[in-house]
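[stage:ingest] chain + small molecule (FE2/S2 (inorganic) cluster)
[stage:ingest] validated
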Amino acid sequence: MDRIAFSVNGTACSVGSEVDSDKTLVDYIRRELNLTGTKVMCREAGCGACVVAVTAPDPLTGQLKTFSANSAKIWSAFRSSPGAGHGEDKARRMVSVESLLTKEI
Ligand code: FES
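[stage:predict] done
[stage:export] tokens:
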């Protein structure tokens, strides 16, 4: 299984075969990165508690798109676009609620 590189709130991350293909983004950021601001409720994409923002190249056009992801499997969120592992990894990023802490209000 290829590795996928992306950033979470600006911090570089990389996942490979050590990460279960069924692992969700929210479980990854809560357990592996200790970012517990994103919550878990239904685990069925019904409540929106676990929503994060993901930016990745569109699989059809290759243009960067930012979309909300809830209950998304970590692999499908970042692997759905062409070019994985071929220089586009730097464009793949995710932001969670913790990213708001760095903004001046
Ligand atoms: S926990 Fe309900 S949508 Fe993710």
